[in-house]
Amino acid sequence: MPLTLLSALRPQNQERLYDLYRELRSADDLSWDRRLDAWVATGHAVVSGAAGDPRFSSVRYPDIEAVSEELRPLARVLSRQMLYSDAPDHARLRSLLSRAFTPRAVAVLRERISGAVDEIVGRAVPAGRMDVVGDLARPLPLAVVCDLLGVPEEDRSLMSSWSDPVAAAIGDSRLDADGSRAASESMTRMLDYLRGLLTRDDGPPAPHTLRALLATGVEDPGQDVDELLANCALLLIAGHETTTHFIGNAALALLTQPEAADQLRRSPELIPAAVEELLRYDSPVQLLLRRARHDLDLAGRSIAAGQTVLLVCGAANRDPAVFPDPDTLDFQRPGGRHVAFGYGPHFCLGAALARLEGVVVLEALLTRLPGWKLDGAPPRWQRSLNFRGLTSLDITFTPGPRDGQGATPD
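User: That's the sequence. What structure does it adopt?
Assistant: Structure tokens below.
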């Protein structure tokens, strides 16, 4: 039986995902997958080239009426988000929201991120154990993006409960009716909440928040408020789901390769470069979807108008033609640009924020959890083609003082 990308969903293949990608890429870096009815691109040159190629569309649902009735409400919202939009709508939406992610705006959040990490890690230090995913990787990015949106602390659990079914729908193209219905209902509830939040008259919002930036848009009679809300929801879901997965994936990589963790402890100035390498090594976003606008040629193949091309970022990031010895962590790796944040016009808007969160988290984990090691059952991966993330990551380490300060690595 020919290899298919769907094999990545099998639990036994999650541990050997990059072996599977290597097999696919070795067979052909752009091939037709009959079971997915799509082209699958696994080579870095093909993936990066197609990701920024204007001959391809990023629209996920070209015919909303063709999707299931249960999924249709979600599809309508996703179709108004910049991630699934083409020019000129994409540039217009991105320009409006990009003001919240300027270097200056992100720098304002550093103190908030550091404080949140200190608090979370400080609670775990006396116990000598932690679920890196449940205790840190999930609550931290959620708190940061909720700060941006001005969501009160008491409402943040609602955001998580609504975000999870939507992320599951985005990550699984073969969702059943119940899953589709849950995702659509969750998105509706999130939008209703955000509408109330952005129009709430409870004093001026903090100046660095998206709520402040969007207040003007909400009051502008020429602005499509539903479109604004759809993109706020995108930032909330993408802004914490992907960073959650990155933190868990990065921690697991360092736990299973202690020599790499030791290198960062000895040379903490390498941590920003380590964030980039860890993003390449085990990307939270594995897949991008593009659709041919018209008949075209890609890497010597004839792509018909309307055909889907699945760009496997995780495979591209292990392409030995660009990244020599790709299965090895190398924090001083020269050249080569990973595609964990996408490529071209759709390059991740929140990349600078995700990088900052990664640096702060790695600094804390490496300096304040001496003797850390995996604990309990082997980590399990979520079932998704689009996203790669752990359900939990239990670790133990040498307990320390209650505030966690002063702990030293082995």
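Residues 272 and 359 are 6 Å apart (CA to CA).
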